[in-house]
């Protein structure tokens, strides 16, 4: 059963100020497309800034895969305002292009040329480019253009201090890291709720299903788009191979030391599969950074990650080892096609509530059996989450309950946490979002994935995506004159280009020596 946390919620109610400074940040990926809906073949626009050094606008896997990054803030409206201004700013610079509104690139065809992102001539820039070459050679290029939204979340240090004292938990030196790892384990146990509610990729292009042994029977529409009637987020399915490496590498998020050691082992351990790809081609060009299981930390695709801001030249492993976990990154959000910026305020409000709940619930240490059980739940939700009377495992004793039954237990707690947060903010936004979203369980047709199938599958998905892209582009252009961040964004373009030039000028090592120094 799910733990009764009524006493912990009562404690929160008597100490509401410890939740006053929740910090959030958003990273939104989106493909640049042509006006006809096809992939843009243009390089990352110079007028947007350097993707190597720009603080808030960069590229992900390919030249046309933008990533918008907001600064962290303890005000939801400020985060969303900055995100909207980033979209507005870019829209004004790419007047002949649009931003693709779906996670899955249905606009891809066999002739599409996907250009791997480039970051200039510096050693740092070459590392980023070769890492992406490695991703292409290991997994393919199309799969790496699948886009999502990442939600960065941190609880105030006052919360962790008071929680440790009151509940007698995590009495070690790094109790904050222990608390975040507890949250992460609970996210694996219960986080399937996020793709159930907000998954928006129940359909994929035929290119994603080639040479796959599918145990689910896909249907297809008139444009050869494959879908499952009860699916929620195929972006999180085995087309991305999300969970297998975590299991194989025995990464269980039980304590920071073992997590970092497992991650370090994966970065240093050779992989027979990737050795067969080769490190360099016949001309001496790198095909990947190394032939190990992971080229670097970022290659471990997970639903949630422990994170820490890094110092210059520092790896994530070193940052976490030296200073502990600072925040968590939620990576299981599809792009919300019903929002111009890919995420809505209601989603953020619900995520806040759920992540606080994950911090309060005691999460037992995980082993492979536990982890496999949780991934089985995720798979069931991903492929057939909206199936009538769907059941999943509720604990390690293989006890099952329906989603409706589980949601009632969870939302009973979420409502109580919502009341506390609303009292802090002197409004009722959190309570209202609870009342709205609890209905998604009894009425699955309200979920994003069901809405996606209703509005886009009967039509032409590519045309629907282009329609939304044009609609949102017009909205961004209309916002241009009220863009409160326009000046600093224009300044950041110039600053980022100067930073890149400086980095390239100050390189003194050859690339081979630079690579050897990083080993």
Automatic annotation (TrEMBL):
Domain of life of the source: Bacteria
GO cellular component, one term: cytosol
Pathway membership, UniProt: Sulfur metabolism; glutathione biosynthesis; glutathione from L-cysteine and L-glutamate: step 1/2
GO biological process, any: glutathione biosynthetic process
Domain Glutamate--cysteine ligase: 11-381
GO molecular function: ATP binding; glutamate-cysteine ligase activity; metal ion binding
Pfam families reported in the protein's UniProt record: Glu_cys_ligase
SUPFAM superfamilies in UniProt: Glutamine synthetase/guanido kinase
UniProt name for this protein: Glutamate--cysteine ligase
EC number: 6.3.2.2
Family: Belongs to the glutamate--cysteine ligase type 1 family. Type 1 subfamily.
Catalytic activity as recorded in UniProt: L-cysteine + L-glutamate + ATP = gamma-L-glutamyl-L-cysteine + ADP + phosphate + H(+)
Record's keyword terms, sorted: ATP-binding, Glutathione biosynthesis, Ligase, Nucleotide-binding
């Amino acid at each position: 059963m799910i733990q009764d946390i009524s006493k912990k919620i009562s404690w929160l109610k008597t100490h509401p100020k410890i939740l006053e400074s929740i910090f959030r940040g958003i990273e939104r990926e989106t493909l640049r497309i042509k006006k006809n809906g096809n992939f843009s073949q243009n390089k990352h626009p110079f007028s947007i800034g350097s993707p190597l050094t720009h603080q808030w606008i960069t590229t992900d896997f390919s030249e046309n895969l933008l990533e918008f990054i907001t600064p962290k803030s303890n005000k939801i409206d400020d985060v969303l305002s900055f995100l909207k201004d980033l979209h507005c700013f870019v829209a004004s610079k790419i007047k002949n292009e649009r931003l693709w509104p779906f996670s899955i690139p249905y606009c891809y065809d066999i002739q599409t040329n996907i250009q791997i992102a480039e970051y200039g001539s510096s050693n740092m820039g070459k590392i980023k480019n070769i890492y992406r070459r490695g991703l292409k050679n290991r997994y393919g290029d199309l799969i790496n253009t699948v886009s999502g939204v990442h939600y960065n979340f941190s609880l105030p240090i006052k919360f962790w201090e008071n929680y440790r004292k009151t509940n007698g938990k995590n009495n070690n030196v790094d109790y904050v890291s222990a608390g975040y790892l507890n949250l992460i384990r609970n996210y694996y146990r219960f986080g399937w709720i996020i793709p159930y509610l907000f998954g928006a990729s129940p359909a994929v292009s035929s290119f994603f299903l080639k040479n796959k042994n599918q145990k689910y029977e896909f249907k297809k529409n008139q444009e050869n788009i494959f879908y499952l009637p009860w699916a929620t987020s195929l972006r999180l399915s085995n087309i991305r191979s999300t969970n297998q490496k975590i299991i194989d590498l025995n990464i269980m998020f039980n304590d920071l030391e073992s997590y970092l050691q497992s991650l370090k082992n994966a970065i240093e351990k050779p992989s027979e599969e990737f050795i067969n790809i080769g490190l360099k081609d016949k001309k001496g060009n790198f095909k990947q950074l190394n032939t190990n299981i992971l080229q670097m930390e970022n290659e471990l695709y997970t639903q949630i990650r422990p994170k820490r801001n890094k110092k210059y030249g520092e790896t994530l492993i070193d940052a976490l080892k030296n200073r502990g976990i600072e925040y968590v990154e939620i990576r299981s959000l599809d792009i919300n096609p019903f929002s111009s910026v890919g995420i809505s305020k209601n989603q953020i409000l619900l995520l806040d509530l759920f992540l606080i709940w994950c911090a309060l619930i005691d999460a037992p240490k995980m082993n492979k059996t536990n982890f496999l059980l949780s991934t089985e739940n995720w798979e069931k939700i991903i492929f057939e989450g909206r199936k009538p009377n769907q059941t999943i495992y509720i604990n390690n004793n293989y006890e099952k309950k329906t989603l409706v039954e589980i949601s009632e237990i969870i939302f009973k707690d979420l409502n109580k946490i919502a009341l506390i947060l609303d009292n802090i903010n002197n409004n009722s936004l959190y309570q209202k979002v609870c009342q709205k979203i609890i209905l998604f369980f009894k009425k699955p047709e309200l979920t994003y994935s069901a809405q996606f199938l209703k509005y886009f599958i009967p039509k032409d998905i590519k045309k629907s995506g282009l329609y939304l892209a044009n609609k949102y582009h017009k909205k961004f252009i209309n916002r241009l004159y009220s863009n409160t961040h326009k000046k600093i964004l224009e300044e950041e373009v110039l600053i980022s280009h100067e930073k890149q030039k400086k980095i390239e000028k100050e390189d003194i090592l050859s690339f081979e020596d630079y690579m050897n120094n990083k080993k």
